[in-house]
Design a protein that fits this description.
Length: 615
């Protein structure tokens, strides 16, 4: 029985492969043509069970009512296709990593045969946005709309079908996800019933279709989502937006009295001054409340002294904090110097020989780290001192500029100012004269006016008298300025004569010095030493100390020896700073190499007197 079943299935597979390759031409559904008698349902059920499918006849009727698909299934065989009659669902999308196995699908009016699994998957176009419509091509010529509904209704609810006379149609589903289920049928060969006629067979081609209804619904849905997103963002912005300040009330007597009390309170002054500023900018000041506004402005002005005191207090606290930081940094530097001194003492031969090689390596590394940290903090402290010196020099420059300005405002500057004032007074005097002449002309015209205009004439006479008095005052002031101008000019002449007399005395002294005999005095040629312009007072002091030290050591000294001497005087002096200062003064200090081989050493020498030669 098993041998006959195997032979019948081999023949069935050969017939199915030939029908899929060359088309179903002369395939009959008799039991003789299939190679398996339909009267033997047991063999048919066993074969279907081995393939993992429910035993079904060619008409779609189950052969065994009590069949359990979980029993008797062969290992390695894919499970039955869920699109078979009785299930009515399409499997969920299968991952790309797992191979897709398509099986035969039996419907009431037709049968769907899967494509060759070795062929590439059918090509599809790019999916339009919101696609719910599919194109179905390759339908049999005798296919009806009822048949299309029977096949594709298992994928999902169908909204509309537009069938063409050329063996294709468009199917619109209710949901977008059903389109993917319909694409699963692309490549299947369909056969109506058991007929082998060419008009009853066809190969399905399912693809995405672009429909205006789908695009319109998708755009409406996108607009709705955009509106919801904007609404959500607006709500979030409203929640995150800081609350608006309370509105400022308009001016009234009651509000004015309350604001006056708030202006006197230091804690409420910022809010009160904002209200007062708003009232003034609104233009709520008039003749009736001008006194109230004046008193409030006066109260605001009284806070200036308090604010200045607070500023001075904060500045004092800042200076104290700076001084405290500087003192703490100086103490830290002293401790660093002590640590470095300990390392240097340990590096001497008396103690160095008693340490092991690893200990010496660690001590050398620790000493270098401590020196680097010490130099960094030392440069920071020197930077603070330089900033203080620059501030002091800026203050000195400001004082010098003020004194220079005061010196420049001597007799010449005063004379120029008096001349400008004299010119302005002359212009004012001419203007007053013109006004007086105009008033006199008007008075002459008014002499023939009847007595009813006597009041206007009185006011004009009064104006004329005021102008005359002002003119007299201006003339007196002009005469006074002229006298002062004459005095200044006399002082300038006397100062010029004094200057000439002093210049003549200087010339006479120079002539007498040239005629003095210089026979017994040796001629000494001293070169001019050009010092850098940026040499500070501290650098000059260090230069004098180093010059004295090197003058005592005529064979020179190393930079470490010089720094050790200077650090006894001031522990805040660094080696890099001293070496930079020596390099900036090449006319005073020179660096030379002494020794041979391993004892080669760089030494600095004092050369300030080498340029002086006597003849």
């Amino acid at each position: 029985m098993e041998l006959s079943t195997e032979k019948s299935w081999r023949k069935h597979a050969a017939v199915y492969e030939s029908s899929r390759t060359y088309g179903i031409r002369s395939m009959n559904m008799d039991s003789g043509q299939m190679g398996m008698p339909m009267s033997d349902p047991g063999a048919w059920a066993t074969a279907m069970n081995n393939l993992g499918m429910a035993p079904m006849s060619m008409t779609g009727q189950p052969l065994m009512s009590d069949f359990d698909p979980s029993l008797g299934m062969m290992t390695g065989i894919a499970p039955m296709n869920p699109m078979m009659p009785g299930l009515g669902i399409v499997p969920p999308p299968i991952s790309q990593d797992m191979p897709v196995v398509k099986e035969i699908i039996h419907c009431k009016s037709c049968t769907l045969f899967p494509p060759n699994p070795n062929l590439p998957p059918p090509a599809t176009r790019e999916r339009p946005p919101g696609c719910k419509t599919v194109f179905v091509g390759g339908l049999p010529e005798n296919a009806t709309e009822q048949l299309i509904v029977e096949v594709f209704e298992q994928c999902g609810e169908i909204v509309a079908i537009r069938k063409s006379k050329k063996n294709f149609c468009h199917i619109r589903f209710a949901e977008e996800c059903t389109v993917d289920k319909a694409l699963f049928l692309s490549g299947y060969r369909i056969r109506l019933g058991s007929s082998t006629d060419k008009k009853d067979t066809g190969r399905l081609h399912v693809d995405f279709a672009q429909a205006r209804d789908d695009l319109y619904e998708w755009e409406c849905r996108q607009r709705m989502l955009a509106r919801e997103e904007r609404h959500r963002r607006r709500i979030e912005e409203d929640l995150l937006r800081p609350p608006s300040p309370p509105p400022i009330v308009h001016y009234s007597e009651h509000e004015c009295s309350q604001l006056g009390e708030k202006l006197k309170d230091d804690s409420l002054f910022p809010d009160a001054i904002r209200v007062l500023l708003t009232w003034v900018e609104r233009g709520e000041v008039n003749r009736r409340n001008a006194n109230n506004f004046y008193s409030m402005i006066q109260s605001s002005n009284s806070h200036i002294r308090r604010l200045m005191n607070e500023k001075a207090t904060h500045e004092k606290e800042m200076e104290e904090a700076k001084e405290k930081f500087k003192n703490a940094l100086a103490g830290i530097l002293v401790q660093f110097e002590q640590i470095v001194s300990v390392f240097r003492a340990a590096s001497k031969q008396k103690a160095w020989d008693h340490f092991s090689k690893a200990q010496r390596k660690n001590l050398d590394m620790w000493r270098k780290q401590a020196e680097e940290i010490r130099n960094i903090h030392n440069e920071e402290l020197m930077g603070i001192r330089r900033e203080e010196e620059m501030e002091m020099s800026d203050d000195d420059m400001e004082d010098a500029s003020e004194s220079k300005d005061s010196d420049d405002s001597g007799p010449a500057a005063q004379v120029e100012a008096l001349k400008e004032e004299n010119d302005s007074l002359r212009c004012q005097l001419d203007a007053y004269r013109n006004e007086v002449e105009l008033l006199k002309q008007e008075q002459g015209k008014v002499a023939s006016v009847p007595p009813q205009h006597s009041e206007e004439e009185a006011t004009r006479r009064q104006q004329l008298s005021f102008l005359q008095q002002a003119l007299q005052g201006m003339q007196k002031q002009l005469l006074k300025i002229r006298d002062e101008l004459k005095q200044r000019e006399a002082e300038l002449e006397r100062s010029a004569e004094e200057k000439q007399r002093l210049e003549s005395q200087v010339q006479s002294l120079q002539e007498r010095g040239r005629s003095f005999p210089l026979a017994h005095t040796p001629q000494v040629r001293i070169p001019r030493l050009r010092l850098p312009d940026t040499l500070t007072y501290c650098d000059a002091s260090i230069q004098r100390i180093i010059s004295t030290f090197l003058h005592v050591h005529p064979f020179g000294a190393s930079i470490e020896y010089i720094c050790s001497y200077l650090q006894r005087l001031d522990t805040k002096i660094s080696t890099s700073e001293v070496e930079a200062l020596l390099a900036r003064l090449p006319c005073t200090f020179t660096q030379q190499l002494t020794g041979v081989g391993a004892s080669l050493e760089k030494r600095w020498k004092f050369c300030g007197f080498e340029g002086i030669k006597t003849t």
